[in-house]
Structure formats: C-alpha cells, structure tokens
Structure prediction request, 857 residues.
Amino acid sequence: MAIVYIESNTTGFGHRLLEASCRYDAVYWLVRDPSRYGFAGRLPAGLATIACDTRSLDALAQAVSGIGAIRYVASTSDGFIEIAAHLSERLGLPCNPSAAIALCRDKLRLGEVLQARGVPYPATREVRRAADMDMGIGFPAIVKPRQGTGSIGVRLVTDARGMPDAQDGPWIAQRFVEGTEFSVETFSDGAGHHVLAVTRKYVTRPPYFLELAHVLPADIGPDANRRIVETVTRALDAVGYAFGPAHTEVKLQGDAATVIEINARLAGGMIPRLLEYAFGWSVADLYVRSHLAGRSQFAVPEPALHAAVAFIVPDVGRRYLGIDFPEGAADAGAFQDGGTNQGRFDFSDRAGYVIAGGRTALSALRAALMLRNRSQVLYAPPEVPPPDAATVRSIALGERSAFRPGSLAGSLFLIEKAHLLMLRSQGILSAGQFRQLRDAVLAAEAEPELLRAHASGRGDYFDYEHYVIDRCGEATGGMVQAARSRNDINATHLLLTLRRAIAGTLDRSLRLGKALLERAEATVETILPIHSQYQVAMPGTAGHYLSAQATAVLGTMETLSSLQDGLDTSPLGACAGAGTTFRTITHETARLLGCVRGPSNSLAAISDKTPALRCAYLFIELSGHLNRLAIDLQLWTMRETGFVRLPEAMYGGSSNMPQKRNPYLLEWLRLHHDRHAGQFAGMLSSLSHLPTGNSYQASRCAVESIADLAGSLGDMCTVATYAIAGMRFDEPAIRRALGAGDAHATLAAEALVQEGRASFREAHTAVGHLLAQAPAEDSGPLAARASGLLAQLRIELEHGQPFDRLGSGGGPAASSTREAIAGLHGRLRRCGLRQLAAAARFEASRRELDTRFRRIR
Prediction:
C-alpha cells in the first residue's frame, strides 16, 4: 500500500507530513525539481522521490502507474491541491471533489456561488481598468489576483490611481468589508464539517494586509463564535466541500460574519504549529490517519491552552543574514537563511516567527509579541572593500592600526550609566542628585574635552571624578563612587575591552576566512605539492592547501566566539573585593551592560584574569596560523621553487642588488607573531605571580596586553587577506618540483597493492628500488608492473590531475575538496552570524541603557 504526495509547501509542515507518513505506508513524493526543497536531502531513506512534470495530469498518472495499491493522493502546496484531486478521481480514490477545490481557488466564481446560496460574501467583479469599478463596486475596494494566497497582490484601493496594471491580471475587485479578521480551521468528512479552531489574525494597516500575528483559539464570545462557525459551515456546504482540511477567512463586524475566501488545504502561517501547541496534537499524524480512515481523527480537548505566533519582518530593502532569537523562545525559527525584504507586503516579507502559549489568548499573544520584540534581525554589515596596496603599505610603515580597544574612556560612560541607574533605583541617590549627575555624564560624553580640562595626572577615572565634583559639588559629585571601587571599575573595563577586542579580531578573521575559501574554490584543480618534513611528498592542490588553512583559522575563530559568549558575568558591584554594605542589585547593572549575572564572589570578580589569558592565548593561536602561512609562502616564493607570486605590495626591493624582490611583509607577519608570543609569555608570568586580590600590575597588564594584541593581530589579518586574495600559482614550476620529488611514488605502491600484486611493504620496497635506480633484487613481474605504473603516473604528474586519485580521508581530490569547502563555508557563515548576534545583543543593551538613563526621573 502506498501514499502519494505531489510537491510540498515550504513552511515546514510538508516536510513533517512526508516523514510522518512513512510510519504508515510506503510514501512516494512526486516533484518537478527536488532541489527547490531544502529538506529534500533529509527525508527518510525509505521515501521514494519521483521527478516528473507535476503540472501535467497525464505525466502524474504515468508516474504512479507502477506503484500498485495507492491509499490516497494529496498535496500541501496550494498550487497542486486541485491536480491531486484530479489524479485521485482518475485513479478512483476517495477525495474532495476537484470541482469544489477549483471553485475555492477562483474567487470570482466563489462569490457567485456563495451569494446565490445566501452566504455573505463581498460584492466581487473582474476588473481590467478603473472604469470597471463603477459596476457595483466603487471605492474603497480590495483588489487582488483572481487566484492566489499568502496575501500576494492584495491591497486596498481608494481611487482610480491605485488600480493595478491590467497586464498583471486577471484581477478582481471586492467591496471593502470593515471588521476583525478571523480564520476557521476545519476538517470535513461524511459526518459534516468539524471545526478545529477559530483563529484571530492581526495584520498591517491598509492599504496592505500582511499578517503579523495569529492567536488560537480566538478569545471571542459564544455568540460571535457561533455566527462565524455557522457562516463558514454554510459556505463549505455551498461549494460542495466533502473531505479534508479547509482554511476559511472571515471578517466579523458587529453581528455580521462575511466570508473573504476559502482555501482547500490546511492553514499556513504556522497555524498547524499553534494547533499542536494549544491542543497537544501531532497534526501530521492526525492528517494521515484521517485520510487513511476516511473520516476526521481530530478531537479538540477541553479546556484547551491558547497559542500565538508573531512574525518577524525585517526592514524593507535591507539585506539580512539571519535572526538571533532570545533565550526563552522555545519554538522559533527562520523561514530562510537570509535575504532582502522586497516590501511586497505578502508572506515573503516575513523572515521568521516565534510561538508562545498561555492560559488566555491575550497572555499567549503578549508572550509571543515580547519574544518577537526581543528577537534581533541580523542585518548584513556594510560591505568593506578588500585591502589594497596602499592600506598594506601604511600598515607596514606603522601609520595605520586596525583598532585599539583599551582606553578606559571607551568604557567609562557605559559603566557610569549602569551604576548611577542602580544607585537611583536603590534610593542611594536622590532624584535631584541623579539628574545632576546624569546631566554631567551626558555633557562629558558629548564633549570629551570637559574631562581633559580636569586632568588629575592619575588617569581617566580621576579626571572624571574631579569633573563631576567640580560640576555638581562635593555632596552630589562625591557620590559617584558609592557602592563601588576602582577595582571593580577596572575589572568591568577589562570585560568590555575583551568584548571589543574579540569582536574586532573576529571581524577581520571573517574577512580572512572568506578570502581563503574564495581562493580555495578557484584553485581546487590547481596542482600543488603536499610536503612532509620539508620535502615534496604527494600531489595535492592549492585549493586543498587553502582549505586546510581555513580549517585551522575557523577552529580558532569558533573558540573565540565561545569565549565571547562566556563573558556574561559583570564584576561591577564587587567594589574593592569585599563587596559593600550598601544594598545593591548587581544583576540589574549586569543586564544593562549586556551580561547575564553580577558577581557571585567579589574577590574572584576583581582578581581573576583567566578570561584575559584565554583570549590572549587564542590571539596567539590565530597569530600562529598566520605565521605558518607566511613560512609556507616564503618557501614557495623563493626563486629556487617559484611556486607562488604575491601581489605587488608584499614586495620590497634591495638597496644594493637590483635583481632582488624581497617579499618582506611575510617576514613582517612572522616578526609580529614572535612579538605576540613574547608578549603572551610576559603576560602569563605577570598574571600568575601575583597574590589574590586587586593589583594595579594585573589590571594594567591584562587590558594593555589584550588591546595591543588585538590591534596588531587585526593588522596581520589585513595583510594576510591581501596576500591570499592576490596570490597566483605557477603550475609549470610546481609540476617540475613534483616530478623531481617523485610525488607519484606512493600512488604507484598503493596501485600495486590494490591490484593484488604485493603487500604494501613489498610494493613500497619495489617502487623505492626503481626510483633509487638500485640493482633490482627481483626483476620479475612485480618490478615490471611497478616500472610501468611509475611511467604512467609520471605522465599524469606532468600533464594530468593525479590528485583526483586521492579522494579518501579528506584527500585533495577535487570532489572531496569541494565538499570540504562547502562545509567550511557553512561554518564561516555560522561564525559570522554568531558574531552579528553578539554585536546585536550588545548594541541592544547599550541602547536600552542609554534610553533608561536619559528617561528615568
């Protein structure tokens, strides 16, 4: 026995239905182009996919002719439900009549039938020009395609200027009906139309009607519910609806319920998920069981929970890469990996969703809206042009630095705002004192020279304290240090410095990773030796080599991202290491600074510099990858090898030898790594030889080391990105080196083993003797075959692609390298999204902090 599906929707339910159906019978999925579906590669192994022309009834009938006994044919894609019914009728299978489905899809004919049966439906006409609106419709009116779903092309027209182009039709115009929007989910069988739920729909304001949220069961009175249900039931009877799910949209105004459209399918818009959340169902299982049984298996529980979905709509015209959902969003997801909101005001504008539940419709809706508001759309950062020769030369001359994140001034005002808000909320500051201090902070933030005018000679913090005391007086200005110390200020400054340093380093590493993968893709079939102990060993490719470098860089980047995610404990409030007698709320200042919690141990909060050491080590690890890359390129740019030519700015000339071109920036990269290693050794020594407690030495060493390493490493990434993007390979020189190094030897030995002529050790010895031109101990068949293989493989080494033989174990064969690069692209994308999400969270907390600081009384 078999179940047949034609095409699928793309919101997730179609995928789940295919999987669920496999538990009941053999499943056949008929599709025109399986690649359109991102889930096609994740379907159960037993499911059979049949490619055919799914728009042709004859082609579909031919495709299923050899299947045998079919239980039912269905589709979850709106555009294929009617043809699925036609195929069912041709095969003699029970189904909803195709005529009823066709009637539901044609909104003009639907109106004629419903009005003839006395079912409220807006006056509807086909329109081709503005003059047609005078034929019983008038303005305002809803104009929409005669067939279509998902709010596509639906808009309110108030005069002739808003009429669509007739060439884009056919269009229909409906008299605009005021009222609240609902949808009714039903399943019909021989016993009638079973109501599953009435859903309240929230849409944008006219002229468009993009659905923004749904909640079910709708919180409406019994009389209103009865009117809606009776109207929908009469409408389904009128069109001859006999079997299966239906999604009917209705407007309710006062006592009048008006049908807007009937969709001969399950609802979209995540409503099936809401049904599951509210009623505890598996909609996919019940759908299959209902079709197999020929009657509805849906039973609505009493009492039910309520569930709501809120949709995330990105800004129009902005490219986005993903969505960062907040903690607590147990059921949330993106509809696609990214894109651009084209402003069509239909379902395609929606990027993702969040679902929440509650005991009432209102509580469920509020929870969903709160989760939506806390979700961050991750917009693509501005395009940064690749580094050019001028940029690289200025870095080499020390005239340019990527960034320097270590100044206290960059952290001080964030710390002050969070601290002063906490002091005010706890009553430690009066309203008047807070207002004076707020004005002082905002003035200094806008005009940093105000602090410089109060130079203390003891650093930024004392400059600030002198400034506020001078401006606000001792009684008010002297309160800024209440319930804290320079110790926890310095520890918080280190936390914020680590954040900025990691973010900046990841930003530049992402560009390096992108350059590595782009060049790897371009050189998948560019031959290059694989070396062992400085010797040519095996044939590889440049793409294989560059993807190896990308693998190492990405591993460090991912660990840096994890370290960044772990910087979620704020030390602010730990004071000098012993806490305070003031009643403070450190978790509140922590949240305002983008952290999860405040200090749990005041001494650890101000003395533990482990995160700085870990960060510094990872910076050295990344620096080491660049150092190793520079060493390789140094060897390959030697005239004796000549494998690689670098872009122009990587070279310098000789003051004495006119023929020399020195790739000195490779040595510049190595020099910086050596400096980093030395700096890390000093940092480790300094931070591990101090007693537990506050230390000026530890605080200064940690902040300055991280800032220096981050700035220098950012410059290294920029130079390496320039070198990778512009490097070119000399294949003739590479092939000469491969031949001179007998890089085909292992291939010959493995071939002898695979032909069954010898063990690997025997084959290894035979090939080695031949290459060493040693007297053969045995000039028999093994040596003869080995000689023939070596000759054949040498030709391949000189003119072919011997690396394609090395496909196992992650070898350099083009196919396996492309597969590896695809995986690395995915990792790089996820790392980029993770960084964008972290930046979005920090920026959101900064905005909230600034807004609260400015508004609080």
About this structure: Residues 313 and 350 are 5 Å apart (CA to CA).
